[in-house]
Amino acid sequence: MNSFSLTFKAGAGALRSVRQHGFDISSVGTLAGASGGAKWLVLSQLDRAILRTVVPKLVGPVHLIGSSIGSWRFACYGQADPLAAIERFERAYLEQTYSQKPDIHEITAKTREILDHVLGESGASEILENSLFRTHVMTVRSRHILASENKALLALGLVSAALFNTVSRSTLGWSFERALFYDKRDVPPFFNATGFPLQQVELHRDNLRDAIVATGSIPLVLSGVPDIAGARPGVYRDGGAIDYHLDLPHSAEERLTLFPHFYGRIVPGWFDKRLKWRRPQPGNVDRTILISPSDEFVAGLPNGKIPDRSDFVNYQPAERVQIWKQCVAACEAMADEFVEVIEKDQLAARLEPLW
Fold first, then answer.
1. Distance (Å, rounded) from C-alpha 353 to C-alpha 214?
2. Does position 17 have pLDDT exceeding 90, yes or no?
3. Measured at the alpha carbon of residue 275, what is the angle toward residues 278 and 236, in degrees to the nearest 5?
4. Angle at the Cα of 142 from the Cα atoms of 262 and 251, rounded to 5 degrees
5. What angle do CA 185, 130, 205 make, to 5 degrees?
6. Which of 46, 75, 137, 255 is exposed most, by the fewest CB atoms within 10 A?
7. 3-class secondary-structure state, position 195
């Protein structure tokens, strides 16, 4: 039985490059972060290891592209003291509490409160002025009835989008428009991503907080963010609706992408979670290295699973916090293994094909 905590998988180009030439950290040009809510807790120790082991050896500019919780993680990476930011985020996320039956307004307000705590007074400026990283946030602009906050209309729109998506992923463009908030200093490889309507919006101090809140605004759970500064009028929501695990061009031709992920597979969109046949376009992940917990490691976590949003319902608050803290502590083993693989140049031997 595989006793490893981590699995390493790669697209065809990355697999060939690392096996032939070894892994050169300076060749990494993109870090990718997927949607997943509370699942990010399984990566918080790995994020620390990446910040200590990989980031000091990166050669900029390096693009950070995230949707939903991926963008929240990278809002920590982009700050002057990213490790301290990760600590703040983890603590605030673990200890968030709500009334017995929180409504959408209470959850949205708590989200804003957590983000303000993570960014502090200077975090937004530090992200926008970071000399190494270029931070980009993927959201969606809702179309038609999906722009409504009326529960019945919004639910109807989501059901319709899901049904049409089973026929063709491209139909999501009827319901949502990609909205990429980007760092204007360097054009990222996904700047002109195709397949869906795309709006490109310069990221700046007046819209950074709203963009990060919007990309985590799960419909029916959090309120959408209306009329973000610099963007087209409309309601902006969770970027995972189209780019759940970022099915867009990750890498410039000569660079690699590191993708720390909760799972060993990439699910293109939020509505594809149960569509096992739906895969990202091979060219989008050709030079991507996916790093994820092994099945055996996950089986050993509390209750044999990664934290997720259902834990808010299934556990009492104190019990949930305890279980999540146990999970985070257990994931130090993943971080230690990652450091060993990188420092002992074992990546080529550990890499498997992405599919």
1. 34
2. yes
3. 80
4. 45
5. 75
6. 255
7. coil
pTM over 0.85? The answer is: yes
* Dist CA 306 CA 318 (whole Å): 18
State whether residue 65 is helix, strand or coil: strand
Residue with tokens 């490893």: 4
Neighbours of 166 (CB within 10 A): 13
Angstrom distances, CA of residue 330 to CA of 44, 215, 307, 333:
11, 28, 12, 6
- Residue with tokens 């096992």, as numbered in its chain: 276
How far apart (Å, rounded) are the C-alpha atoms in residues 303 and 115?
Answer: 29
Both tokens assigned to 163:
């049904």
Q: Give the pLDDT confidence of 63-75 residue by residue, as tens digits.
A: 999 999 999 999 9
Both tokens of 304, joined, read 């044999």
Per-residue pLDDT tens for 250-293? 998 889 999 999 999 999 999 999 999 999 999 999 999 999 99
Cis peptide before 61 (omega within 30 of 0): yes
315 vs 297: CA distance, rounded Å: 22
Structure tokens at 128: 């926008």
Instruction: At 195, give phi and psi (nearest 5°).
Output: 105, -25
DSSP characters over 232-291 = PSSEEE-THHHHSS--S--S-TT-EEEEE-SSSS---SGGGTT-TT----GGGGTTEEEE
pLDDT of residue 2: 56
Q: What is the distance between the alpha carbons of residues 274 and 267, in angstroms, rounded to a whole number?
A: 9
Using only C-alpha atoms, what is the Rg of the chain?
19
